[in-house]
Amino acid sequence: MKFTHLSFGLYAAAIFGLAACSTTTQYTSGKDYLKRYDERAALHVPSSGSVDADIRNIAAIEPDLQFPARIGLARIEKGRLITTPQDESESWTKMYNRLGPSFGEFVPVSPLITSMVSGPQKTNHPAQIVNDIRRGSARQHLDYVLIYEVSDTSDKSRNALQLADLSILGLFVLPSRNMKVDSTATAMLIDVRNGYPYGTATAFAERKAITTAIRANDKKMKLKDKARVIAVEELSDEVEEFMFELRDITAEKYAEY
Fold this sequence. Notes:
By secondary structure, the chain is an alpha+beta fold. Helices cover about 45% and strands about 25% of the residues. The chain is built from nine helices and eight strands. The longest helix has about 40 residues. The radius of gyration is 24 Å and the shape is globular.
């Protein structure tokens, strides 16, 4: 009986851990970047349609980040824009409240509005998805949009109690399966008008548990949900960090003028 009690205790237990998170910010000038092109223009003029011409056009973009602003939130799942889940919205709402009104207004990007102005849905190519989100954000008159998504991997293995799988009751009673789910949440803040990428953030969450063989799939889904919510919570903290960094950068830039 003691062994059975311990088994249920182990089955109910879950272990949670986090890996390192990261953020990046960008506020560089395309004009400054292309100065070397201008200096060498007399020696080499890229032909229309060449890779050199493409690089020049891609780089010719200027940051224009100003607060307060209308900032959109767009959630991607399986290659499409979806409504932000309620359990994830709570983390973003807390972040918005911490940032305060000086950053402006935060608005969910509507999948319905986006579908009204999207291009032909030929593929789920990332570039097409981002472009459609920009179109929907433009229709909602948003200045910038924070696009994010969550991906996960899971692993299931047998433990020392695997012999219980040979018995009928063991499948239901003894925790012979080790379960682990890793979730990765990533976000990018871009300018709706010109696509300039101002910042990126990444966060990770790990959730572990042990379970019976008969309940392994159900337990995996529950672990995925828990890891997803925690990863987004961590992601919102990382986004908050780079938002403050960007505000400081823009404040310095405008102080120069």
